[in-house]
Design goal:
- The chain is of the alpha/beta class and 198 residues long.
- The protein has a single domain, classed as Rossmann fold, CATH 3.40.50.
- The chain is built from 8 helices and 5 strands.
- Strands 3-2-4-1-5 form a 5-stranded mixed β-sheet.
- Helix 7 packs across helix 8.
- The longest helix is centred in the last third of the chain and has 18 residues.
Length: 198
């Protein structure tokens, strides 16, 4: 699968930054909120999350984005809009950047993530608990980058998404074993990283 997902950074026309949304109401409540039915309309940024985003903007040391593309969940939308307003750039929602679907664990305590990650470490194609397989998340996240490559050239694109999808994307584009995506250091709320190391 890595042969079809990995991207050659030297062949990319755009440069990409990744940003996890700020601390959210779902984080505050310790709940898994992964369904569009809940995540698009509610569970936006907490006061802590809004401060995290503002703090990142005050100390921004990455390239200035020319465009912001984001998951259409409320917590990522609010993060993306704040960044876009700060830099005076356009913002575009993209469902391909949504949170990983956690199936029957929706609404449960976030300690249940560990049950899914343990299964991920054995099989990147598993769908236990009705979750979206790691391989499927990787495919849709990489598809977003490939589509942006087809449509625009020479810009700095900030992708605003969620913890698991971003770790999976970082694993996929570098050929890292998708089963081991949790071995990577998780992005903190409102953290920004480059898609490819320079």
């Amino acid at each position: 699968m890595s042969d079809t997902l990995s991207l050659d950074p030297s062949g990319c026309r755009n440069r990409y930054l990744l940003m996890r949304h700020g601390h959210s109401e779902a984080n505050r409540q310790g709940r898994i909120i992964s369904s569009p039915g809940q995540g698009i309309a509610s569970f936006g940024l907490s006061p802590q999350g809004r401060k995290e985003v503002d703090d990142i903007l005050e100390t921004w040391h990455w390239e200035v984005p020319t465009h912001v593309v984001h998951s259409d969940f409320l917590r990522t939308t609010q993060t993306a809009v704040r960044v876009a307003e700060h830099f005076g750039v356009t913002v575009t929602p993209n469902p391909g950047l949504r949170e990983r679907g956690f199936g029957e664990l929706e609404g449960e305590e976030d300690a249940r993530y560990a049950d899914v990650w343990a299964c991920d470490a054995v099989d990147a194609s598993h769908a236990r608990f009705g979750v979206e397989p790691v391989e499927a998340v990787a495919a849709r996240m990489v598809a977003v980058v490939r589509e942006l490559e087809r449509r625009a050239a020479g810009g700095v694109v900030l992708l605003v998404s969620h913890g698991d999808p971003l770790q999976i994307l970082l694993s996929a584009v570098t050929g890292f074993d998708l089963r081991r995506h949790r071995d990577r250091s998780p992005l903190r709320p409102a953290e920004v990283v480059a898609l490819f190391e320079s």
